Amino acid sequence: MTDRPDTDGSPFDDLPGDLMIWVLIVSELLVFGAGLAAFLGVRLTDPAGFAAAQDHLHRAAAGVNTVVLVTSGWLAALGAQAVETGRLARARGLLAAAAGMGAVFLAIKWAEYAGKAAQGIGVETHPFFTFYYLVTGFHAAHVAAGIVVLLLVAARAQTREVEAGVAFWHMVDLVWVLVFPVIYLLR
Amino acid sequence: MAHVTKAWALLLALSGASTVLSVAVARGALSGGEVTLGGAAILALAWAKARTILNAYLRLDEAPAFRRGFGLTLALYALLLLALYLAG
């Protein structure tokens, strides 16, 4: 009998990146997925109230934020490709640009929250806004964490670290493309 | 054009389509059952965007078995959201 590496034949060998980052991604998707399903479930109790509350949201700003985040994801993906091919300066630049786009997302989100606060809209104004602040606030916290992660992995420019950091950033992107239509667009 | 760049262009196009649909609903261009159809289309576009991010950005295209597994789970979840939306 010959010795074989521990990973030989594992079904997870085909998974791009570390298994643990996928565990994190799936965990986060479950949390946000449950939140969005609960939002639509509670909406059944007061569709008119939810529609009226949704009219206070700035759909165009959220649409711009979608473009900002998917563009940031694209830059991060290009950054990961660059570090794999040893182009470290290009990788650092792309990852920093991706982080910068994340900061733009947060700035627009901050302006959105400030606008709500100016209208006297808070967490307890309506169940719609309870979910709105919880889901988008939790997502914004992930964006902030992702910016820090991107900047850290950009500084070190190690392939495995960049791959994991960029995968986290794509998870943030993935969550947003589900949050945006459910919270902001569905009537 | 690189795979991720094509994915980015597709994501921009899908996001644009979502925005056009939602603006049409908000401005009253759609009414009655059309609004519901528009909502269902917006959910379908979100599902397409999520698939694109999983397959191209997160590189599940390189792992067909995982792509199918995530794809099926995502499709079932999108159907759950659609059912909750249509029930409202």
Overview of the structural elements:
The complex is a heterodimer of chains A (187) and B (88). Chain A has six helices and no strands. With 187 residues, chain A is mainly α. Chain A has a domain at 59-185: Cytochrome c oxidase, subunit III, four-helix bundle (Four Helix Bundle (Hemerythrin (Met), subunit A), Up-down Bundle), CATH 1.20.120. In chain A, α3 (59-84) runs antiparallel to α6. Chain B has one domain. Chain B has helices spanning 3-26, 33-57, 64-87. The chains are: A mainly alpha (187), B mainly alpha (88). Chain A binds chain B through residues 11, 14-17, 25, 33, 36-37, 40-41, 43-44, 47, 55, 59-60, 63, 66-67, 70-71, 73-74, 77-78, 81, 167, 170-171, 173-174, 177-178, 180-182, 184-187, and chain B through 2, 4-5, 7-8, 11-12, 15, 18-19, 21-23, 25-26, 35, 38-39, 42-43, 45-46, 49-50, 53-54, 56-60, 62-66, 77, 80-81, 84-85, 87-88.
Beta-strand content of chain B = under 5%
The CATH class assignment of the domain at 59-185 in chain A is Mainly Alpha
The CA-CA distance between the termini of chain B, in Å, is: 42 Å
- What is the overall shape of chain A? globular
β-strand number of chain A: 0
Shape of chain B: flat
H/E order of the elements of chain A? HHHHHH
Number of helices of chain A: 6
What is the H level of CATH, i.e. the homologous superfamily of the domain at 59-185 in chain A? Cytochrome c oxidase, subunit III, four-helix bundle
Number of strands of chain B: 0
Greatest contact between two chains: A-B, 41 and 43 residues
